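Hey, I'm writing a tutorial for new members on how sequence and structure tokens pair up, and I'd like a real worked example in the thread rather than a made-up one. If someone can provide the structure for the chain below, I'll link this post from the tutorial.
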Amino acid sequence: MFKAIATSLLWLTSLPVCIYTLITYLFSYTLVLDHWSAGFVMMSLPFAMLGCFIIAFTWLFIRPARAILPILILALGYPFIKRTIVFKDPQRAANSLSVFSYNVFGFYGDNNNKEKAEKLMSYCIDYEADIKCFQEFYNVDDNENFQSLIPMLKENPHFISNKEKWNPGMMGLIIFSAYPIINRDGKTFGRSNANGYLMADIARKKDTIRVINIQLQSMGIRVNKVVSEMKGEDYEEAKKEGRGIISSLKRGFEQHSVEIETIERLINDSPYPIILCGDFNETPYGNAYGSIRDRLKNAFEESGNGFGFTLNRSPRIVRIDNQFCSESIKVLDFKTFSDVKLSDHYPILGRYEIGGVKEVKK
């Protein structure tokens, strides 16, 4: 009798989980709902798939025939597994182009640690790459102790930024290139100094490529603070922080939907092959990632290895920094340097083979 009741309850649990997982697929595959609430649903996709996996595994030992439904649903979500984990071997090419991207957290972060900032700056200067894209870059023109821009120009003498003059306290986007920049554009999103995009059309030998560096609205998630309050048994404060996270996520999803429309236009109107990189402040299951993925290839999915998590703070197990490229560009290798713990993000590097066709459309 007890076994029959337990089996019935498990089946009643299985159906809602399977249906919910299908809904997350619908939103993530089609981007059918342009509303902030869809962001919460899409963000939960890996947990829904994990629930399906647990249910399928359980049914295999109780009544194997009932495992067919969750297994089929998991099979439908296979492309999302590729967004989560891949195992690809790097390739080589004589004519490769390297693109380095890093959110440097203003070099000084929250603790104003000068020694750590100097190590971070030296790392960024010394790392050899044809193109370097930084988010939350910090420089003070009139203070030699905070002049991070000038040393960067030694190996990458061409640059654009979204600041005409760097003043104390200001962070922003910047692109350094070893090759000439023949056209440039940029925009700041909202009132933020850091969020926005930079676009550089770069002439490399016989090719011209469009490089776009972006940082979308931060979600402002303070998971570590919630955990700290819970450990201190201050549950009211933990609830307050939890509500703050939900509110920040809602604002972030709303803002991302507006920001990503601008980025889509840059991609659609480009006469050149594109490499896009930056801090999405969003997981690979969200609207921003999906919209860009409809137009460009993701470098991690094409040639990454492992999970590729890029956040060096709670919740850690997320990949929010990305590189994308046009179909005409081949991804040779993609790396996340998770051993470089100098910022609250990890740096990422993509190596590409550029085709030799200047214009991709008239």
